[in-house]
Write a structure and sequence with these properties.
- GO terms for molecular function: NAD+ binding; UDP-glucuronate decarboxylase activity.
- It catalyses: UDP-alpha-D-glucuronate + H(+) = UDP-alpha-D-xylose + CO2.
- Pathway: Nucleotide-sugar biosynthesis; UDP-alpha-D-xylose biosynthesis; UDP-alpha-D-xylose from UDP-alpha-D-glucuronate: step 1/1.
- It is a single-pass type II membrane protein.
- By secondary structure, this protein is α/β, with parallel strands linked by helices.
- It has a domain at about 95-270 and about 305-330 and about 365-385: Rossmann fold (3-Layer(aba) Sandwich).
- It is about 45% helix and about 10% strand.
- It has 11 helices and 13 strands.
- It has helices at about 1-10, 15-80, 105-115, 170-175, 175-200, 235-255, 280-285, 305-320, 335-345, 370-375, 385-405; strands spanning about 95-100, 120-125, 145, 160-165, 200-205, 260-265, 265, 290-295, 300, 305, 325-330, 335, 355.
- The strands form 4 sheets. Strands 3-2-1-4-5-6-11 form a 7-stranded parallel β-sheet, sandwiched between helices. Strands 7-10 form a two-stranded parallel sheet. Strands 8-13 form a two-stranded parallel sheet.
- Strand 5, helix 6 and strand 6 form a beta-alpha-beta unit.
- Helix 5 (about 175-200) packs parallel to helix 6 and helix 7 packs across helix 11.
- The protein starts with a helix and ends in a 20-residue tail after the last helix.
- It binds nicotinamide-adenine-dinucleotide.
- Nicotinamide-adenine-dinucleotide (NAD) binds next to helix 3, helix 5 and strand 5.
- Nicotinamide-adenine-dinucleotide binds near residues 128 and 166.
Length: about 425
């Protein structure tokens, strides 16, 4: 039916009309092809555009994310929560000055006294201390940090003074012996003068080095010591001895209340990484896969106390009525080799132990007698060696990571060494 109708139509159309119709059909076909092409390329363009936009957006996201992270950190630092602090009534709250409070021991003492609810002023010249050790208190209403050298007089109102300012490790105190002497002599006089003016009690952080190269073991407080007054360590040993003398002169002549802590080797987080001490040396060597260097046979013994034990001892002594010197240390002796092996296994390090020739004047034994502290302060160390070492290892590992991730922060300089021989400190 349909084909017949079409035939009739075709035969009825003249050839001219036929050409016209064919032309129109061709045009319609071309238009439909063009239309398809246009719509396809539109769709294609759109997907390319969308794709490009997506890529662009993810690039921007990549750049912005670290900025967002930084903003979050900044926000956190503004709304920073301080470690929990006890509330003390005005009557019980003391105004406490800690000289050398940004150092290793001083910063832990700051933490303890702040958390106990006291008002703490840290005075430090940042010779070996650093702001990072106490930064978590900056801005707290009970805390103040003053950049000051104790060789210059200080005028503030306080109830107690923990006088810790002094470089403590041999490379540091031998770097500038005259300054070490000034800090321990003029610095101590200044702090005793302040204690006298404001009626404060002063605790001196003295040292086991006042016993020098001891001839009695273990050392009791009534041992007078065996110190070379002109040796390379004299600036520190004799500096601390005269600082003790000054304390008792001020006590006898001016009635200043003094406390003297003879501190033995101490370790823990925030101790200096490059101060050449045996614990820090071994931990760093083990963490970095380097050989652990033992001088001599490694049978020499050392005794180390964990820093929180020392801090508790310092506070107990300050608040006691014991004005004569008191040893604060851990009497548990270990050989240097035992330390090396224990640290190696706690770090899980494959480092070897390397034996080097014995160092001159390396003491064979170091051990405190702490009967007096036990009896009069009820104090003794409680942190087991392994527990303390694990905390110190954790700290050193984090410090190494921190340095690796913060290349723009200058690496800590190696200990400022000028003179002195290598030995186990
Ligand atoms: N760490 C130990 O094993 C040990 C052993 C015996 C005695 N001590 C005594 O304990 C105290 C603290 O020792 P540490 O191990 O924390 O040492 P550290 O070097 O970490 O701290 C000493 C602090 O005193 C500051 N300081 C030095 N000279 C100063 C000055 N002139 N004015 C102001 N600040 C000054 C330093 O910058 C540093 O913050 C020292 O007096 C040290 O003699 C420590």
């Amino acid at each position: 039916m349909l084909s017949k109708a079409a035939l009739r139509l075709v035969s009825a159309v003249s050839p001219r009309r036929m050409k016209l119709l064919l032309g129109l059909a061709l045009l319609a076909y071309a238009a439909s092809v063009w239309g398809n092409f246009v719509s396809m390329s539109f769709l294609l363009n759109r997907s390319i555009q969308e794709n490009g936009e997506l890529k662009f957006e993810s690039k921007i996201e990549e750049i912005i994310e670290p900025l967002r992270e930084k903003i979050r950190d900044l926000e956190k630092s503004f709304t920073q929560k301080y470690p929990p602090v006890k509330f003390l009534s005005e009557k019980d709250r003391k105004r406490i000055l800690i000289t050398g409070g940004a150092g290793f021991v001083g910063s832990h003492l700051t933490d303890k006294l702040m958390m106990d609810g006291h008002e703490v002023t840290v005075v430090d010249n940042f010779f070996t201390g650093r702001k990072r050790n106490v930064e978590h208190w900056i801005g707290h209403e009970n805390f103040e940090l003053i950049n000051h050298d104790v060789v210059e007089p200080l005028y503030i109102e306080v109830d107690q003074i923990y006088h810790l300012a002094s470089p403590a490790s041999p490379p540091n105190y031998m770097y500038n012996p005259i300054k070490t002497l000034k800090t321990n002599t003029i610095g101590t006089l200044n702090m005793l003068g302040l204690a006298k003016r404001v009626g404060a009690r002063l605790l001196l952080a003295s040292t086991s080095e006042v016993y020098g190269d001891p001839e009695v073991h273990p050392q009791t407080e009534d041992y007078w010591g065996h110190v070379n007054p002109i040796g390379p360590r004299a600036c520190y040993d004799e500096g601390k001895r005269v600082a003790e003398t000054m304390c008792y002169a001020y006590m006898k002549q001016e009635g200043v209340e003094v406390r003297v802590a003879r501190i033995f080797n101490t370790f823990g987080p925030r101790m200096h990484m490059n101060d050449g001490r045996v614990v820090s040396n071994f931990i760093l060597q083990a963490l970095q896969g380097e050989p652990l260097t033992v001088y001599g046979s490694g049978t020499q013994t050392r005794a180390f106390q964990y820093v929180s034990d020392l801090v508790n001892g310092l506070v107990a002594l300050m608040n006691s009525n014991v004005s004569s010197p008191v040893n604060l240390g851990n009497p548990e002796e270990h050989t240097i080799l035992e330390f090396a092996q224990l640290i190696k296994s706690l770090v899980g390090s494959g480092s070897e132990i390397q034996y080097l020739s014995e160092a001159q004047d390396d003491p064979q034994k170091r051990k405190p007698d702490i009967k007096k502290a036990k009896l009069m302060l009820g104090w003794e160390p409680v942190v087991p060696l392994e527990e303390g070492l694990n905390k110190a290892i954790h700290y050193f590992r984090k410090e190494l990571e921190y340095q690796a991730n913060n290349q723009y922060i200058p690496k800590p300089k190696p200990a400022r060494i000028k003179k002195g021989r290598t030995r186990h400190n």
